[in-house]
Structure formats: structure tokens, C-alpha cells
Amino acid sequence: MSKKLFTDFDSVSAKAWKQKIQVDLKGADYNETLIWNSPEGINVKPFYHKDDFEGKQYTEVPSNTWSICQSIFVFDVEKSNSKAVNAIKRGAESIIFIIPNNEVSISTLIKNIDATSTPLYVELQFLDADYTKQLSAISGVTILTDIIGNLARSGNWFNTLQSDHEQLDCIVSAKNKTLSVDLSLYQNAGATIVQQLAYALAHANEYLNHLNQNLTSEITFKVSVGTNYFFEIAKLRALRILWKTLAAEYGVTDTCHIIAMPTKRNKTLYDYNTNMLRTTTECMSAILGGANTICNLAYDAIYHKDNEFGERISRNQLLVLKHESYFNAVENASDGAYYIESLTQQLSEKALVLFKDIENNGGFAKQLKEGLIQKKIKESATKEQEAFNSGSITLLGTNKHP
After folding, report:
1. How confident is the model at residue 391 (pLDDT cuts 50, 70, 90)?
2. Distance (Å, rounded) from C-alpha 303 to C-alpha 269?
3. Residue 144, Cβ density class (10 Å: 0-12 exposed, 13-18 middle, ≥19 buried)
4. Rounded to an integer, what distance in angstroms lies between the CA atom of residue 367 and that of residue 359?
5. What is the pTM of this model?
């Protein structure tokens, strides 16, 4: 056939679609019946059309190459090493080690692991430039350092403001990626998507202000993915747009690495198998949104200690998505979806407005110390809880069909 199939059909404009919908509504109000407002202040329409995107640029999403990751808290070094080696044999393609103190032996921890073929991410719960330099000497190891994230989480610096920033300067000068921004903290606390994006940008801006163009490596964003499927896809896409915009102002690398994991906020104690359904759709959002590394959450993580069964199931969920559902085979599956593109652009614009407001009022660290960030998140979390209690937000198996 020399003709394309759809050239035989007349195109239908957005205006014509809307008129047809209004006829089918038989007098019901279009806006009240079919348009709903999200917590982010976005009016979601019943359909999206290419007419809405005349003259606009589409979002660029990186190549669809994502790795299955296993997170391991290092309590016993030898057992943690054994767990990591076993996880790699069973399908994990990267490992996150969470290290609580500088007494952990690095050589023992990574014994029999080839970090060049299996990337290792090391999240330190302390600040030690000398320890970090030992890690940075190992090829394939990425150290995640976030002193402002520690301030936001605990209310304190690791040591003092001055000491932490001096250590940060030493750490960032190492050859491996060593700077990270943990915006999963804000999502799990109840922030809206716009707040998460704006706070992540303001959080990163604090580092860029301090480093003054001395950031030579790629920044890492650690993200929690919620249950609002399409919005979460758009969130990750918007995050890349916002970082690219900010990085251009400082003349630093505009690429970033996104580590995504399911949120803990919507997980249930009572019908815990439902958690597997939620983490699956959340991982799907992360994949379609363009995350680089995906670390699933075990279905029993909020009420049970780490265990082999829960971790195996969570890893297998990603293996099924990758090798049986072929989520690694389709390049940028969300491209061309007008709905997702519209959400991406609106989230980016709203987050940028909030980011500018934060900067005009003293910056992220200042507002964090004054409690303004915490206050805004608490307000959002309270609204979300009220919507859940009233049934406006539906979580199947919890407040709908329990």
C-alpha cells in the first residue's frame, strides 16, 4: 500500500470533539460533569488533542534503559554482602547500600561484587570526607551525599552548618557522582507533586549557590512515586525539565540520574497484599516517566523487618515488568500522549512559580529553618487525609471495597 491508512479519514478538531461531547451530555454542564480539579490545581479535561500543542515543544525523555535495584541496610557487613551477592544472582542489576557509620568495612561489603558491571549506590547516614574518598576510589560506586536532606529529615545538620559544608566541598571534589537530592522525603510527608518538584529544585539550588559552578558530575535525584499513575509519569518528566532549566543558569551539566521507589504513604497494614498492586503500578509510572534506577518496596516493608520472601517478591515484580511485560523494549512509551504532555508542562510551570517564590523569600534552607516548608507540607497532607476519609480519594481495598 502506498497510502497511509488514516489519510482516508478526515481529521477531527478539538472544537468538534467538544461539541459532540456536549450533545451526548444532553444538557448536563460540561465543566461540572467531566472536568475535575487535582490537588495541584490542574483542571483535568476529558480529552486532549493535538490542537492544544500547536507551536509547543514536546518533552525529551532519555532512552528507556532502567536497572532493577535492591536496597540493603548494612547492619551486619558480612550478611549484607551475602544478601547483595544473592540478589545480583537473582536478577538485581544494581545495589543501594545504606551505611549507618564509618566502621563498616568497604572491602568486606563489596567482596565478590564487580561494581563496573553492577553499579553500587552508597547512601551514608553520616558525614566523613575521608571515608567517602575511600569509596570514590572504587570504579562503579556512586556516593549519595545530601546534607540538606538530613537537615529536612532530622531538623539538624550532621555536625554544624559550617562543618557540613566544608565536608561537602571535599566530597563533591571526588571523581564519582556524590551529590544527591532526596525529594522522596517530601512525598512521603504528604507534599503535593508541585511542592515536591519546587522543593527539589530549591533544594538543589542551595547546593549550586554554595558550590558556585564547581559541580562537575551528574546530580542524583531520589524520588518516591505515588499512586496517581499519569501524574507520577509527568512528575518525573517535569523534574528533568526543571533541572535542565536550573542547570543552564549555572552552566553545569544538565543531565541527572533519577532513582525511583514506591511511596510508603499509601501502603496498608490490613490488606497487605494490595500493596503489591500499588507498588507494581507505581514502578510502572517510574519506568514510563524515565527513571534510571528503580528500587521496589517490599509489600510488608512498613510493618515487617527486611526478609527474604518480601524482597524476592518485590524484585520479581520488576523482573516481570522488564522481561515478561517488555517495559524495557518500548522506547519512551509515553511520548505522543497529549494528556501526559499537558500534565508535564503544567506541573513544570506551577513548580517553577513556587520555586521562584521560595527564592524571593530567602531560599529553601531559610524557609526550612523557619518551619514554613514543614507547615505547607502539613497543610497538604491534612487536605489529602480529609479527602481520603471522605472518599474523595479512592484506594481500592482500603476505603473502597475493603
Report:
1. confident
2. 7
3. buried
4. 10
5. 0.93
Question: What is the grid cell recorded at 111?
Answer: 567482596
- By CB atoms closer than 10 A (0-12, 13-18, 19+), residue 173 is middle
pLDDT in tens, 43-97: 999 989 888 777 677 777 766 789 999 999 999 999 999 999 999 999 999 999 9
Distance CA 232, CA 239 (A): 11
Element (DSSP H or E) covering residue 281 = helix 274-289
Residues in the chain: 402
Four-point Cα dihedral 194, 200, 201, 204, nearest 10? 180
The span from the CA of 190 to the CA of 196, in Å, is 9
Cell 547546593, residue? 207
| CA neighbor of 240 nearest in space, from 289, 180, 194 | 289
| DSSP code per residue over 43-65 | EE-S---GGGGTTPPPPP---S-
pLDDT band at 187 (very low <50, low <70, confident <90, very high): very high
Domain ranges in the chain are 67-323
CA dihedral sign of residues 52, 58, 59, 65: positive
Q: Cell 487536605 appears where?
A: 383
pLDDT band at 395 (very low <50, low <70, confident <90, very high): confident
Half-sphere exposure of 105 (CA within 13 A, CB side): 9
State which amino acid sits at residue 98. Answer: I
d(CA 321, CA 195): 30
Confidence of residue 228 (pLDDT cuts 50, 70, 90): very high
**By three-state DSSP, how is residue 310 classified?**
helix
Crossing angle of helices 229-250 and 338-360, in 10° steps, is 50
The reported pLDDT for the residue numbered 1 is 44
Amino acid at 301: A
The alpha carbon dihedral of 124, 87, 106, 66 has a sign of negative
Start-to-end CA distance of the chain, whole Å, equals 53
The topology (CATH level 3) of 67-323 is: TIM Barrel (3.20.20)
Q: How many other C-beta atoms can be found within 10 angstroms of the C-beta atom of residue 101? A: 11
